[in-house]
Amino acid sequence: MEPITNLLSSINSIVWGIPMLVLLAIGGIFLTIGLSFVPIRKIPYSFKLLFKGNVTSPNDKGDITPFNSLMTALSATVGTGNIAGVATAIALGGPGAVFYMWLIALIGLATKYSEAVAAVSFREIDTHGNYVGGPMYYIKNGLKDKFPIIASILAYSFAIFTAVAAFGIGNGVQVNSMALALGDTFGIHSGFTGVIVAVLIGAVLLGGIKRIADVAGKLVPTMIILYLGSGLIILAINIAKIPEAISLIFYHAFNPAAAAGGFAGAAVAAAIRFGVARGVFSNESGLGSAAIAHAAAKTNDPARQGHIAMLGTFIDTIIVCSITALVILTTSSVESGENGAVLTTLAFSNVLPFGAEIVTIALAVFAFTTIMGWSYYGEKSIQYLFGDKIIIPYRILWVLAIPFGALVELDFIWLLSDTLNAMMALPNIIGLILLSPFIFKKTKEYWENKKLGK
């Protein structure tokens, strides 16, 4: 087992290393330029669309509202990366890592936008009458005429990577993190947590994407507001320290962080690496997962859904991750030498009477919604591979895996799923680049029609 683990660790260091991060950055920059910076320039317009996201036309095709499709995507995106990932980036990469999280998020807006445009454009209807889509479908349907062999290989690769990774990154790892946090803070037994989560997730999955979207539409915005509200209270208390924290972020983005004041010491290269890696891990831009949720949106306009979809990256990283980072830096919690979720918990508890409880509840709910969102991603991927008959057995297996994940050590499972999670990006980015002329054309037509009042 040890040789396999060592080999997997080596592969993991490559797929989450500099080459993959460079590919994601270059892909995002290429799409940003090709889209004439529309994803960045039109952020205010996208929020305007979001507030109308539950309003649909009777002629719109799809299963869930555009707003709920974003909430479903966010349910799988906003999670431990926003709480533990940010802290890890700061502890290992210094304050400058936050700058590169912001940078990769701004670049990732174009990637997430492009994924949704392609997902809505090339989605299909399964035998149950439900809309299905995502990278495997837009690669297959969008590229089959020009690159039939490449399209088939890339589509199946993405579906395989996602179906397997989902059980680790979206199931076992999440419930395990939840069980440990609830056990440490409230003394709740891991077995009890596993059973309760399995029952609740099972009840949600019985209703398919519509029930997942309904639950996500209520739970995700509520928890984001509560978590952000707590963070904003801390920042209001420490408002005098915010300018210094922001100054540290920008200074150490271009200057090494010394090994002092709790920082391990980090070169600029470390700030770039950990900032970009944790940013991508948190917002999933380029991985293609969110496109699976947006493919089910009730809309006949791919570009319109693209504008809503890209807000997932903005909300996740520019808003939620930024609050976590500023709380950590303004409370000087990094001086403790702690890392991950422990560091974020310490930062909140240093200021708020029930800070530890707030972070624990947020982590638990975010982990729950991640299990819920990734269940859909894995389901659609395995459905693509084996057909509709696999859906019910898959849901049963997904629910049964939850109590198991809450009780066992998951180091190997985490390593395997984390590796496959990164490998999802490779076929997705290649597919998006090959489909970029189509995506650019759709975007140009959308804004030309807006100017004409259509």
Largest sheet, strands/sense/barrel? 2 strands, antiparallel
Strands across the major sheet, in which order?
A: 1-2
* General shape: globular
SSE order, as H and E?
A: HHHHHHHEEHHHHHHHHHHHHHH
The N- to C-terminal Cα distance equals 61 Å
Q: β content, as a range?
A: under 5%
DSSP, total strands: 2
Question: What ranges have pLDDT less than 50 throughout 5 or more consecutive residues?
Answer: none
Mean pLDDT: 87
Number of separate helices: 21
Structural class by secondary-structure content:
mainly alpha
Helix content: over 70%
Radius of gyration: 21 Å
Description:
- It is a single chain.
- With 454 residues, this protein is mainly α.
- 77% of the residues lie in helices and 1% in strands.
- It has 21 helices and two strands.
- Strand 1 and strand 2 form a beta hairpin.
- The chain is globular, with a radius of gyration of 21 Å.
- The model has no long low-confidence stretch (mean pLDDT 87).
Q: What's the quick description here?
A:
Helix content is 77%, strand content 1%. The protein has 454 residues and is mainly alpha-helical.
Feature tags:
454 residues, mainly alpha
Topology:
Layout: H1 2-15, H2 18-34, H3 38-41, H4 43-51, H5 66-77, H6 80-93, H7 96-121, E1 124-125, E2 131-132, H8 135-143, H9 148-186, H10 190-205, H11 208-237, H12 242-252, H13 268-283, H14 289-294, H15 302-309, H16 311-330, H17 340-349, H18 355-386, H19 391-407, H20 411-423, H21 425-451
Helix pairs in contact: 1-20, 2-7, 2-21, 5-11, 5-18, 6-13, 6-16, 6-17, 7-8, 7-12, 7-13, 7-15, 7-16, 7-21, 8-9, 8-21, 9-10, 9-18, 9-19, 9-20, 9-21, 10-18, 10-19, 11-16, 11-18, 16-17, 17-18, 18-19
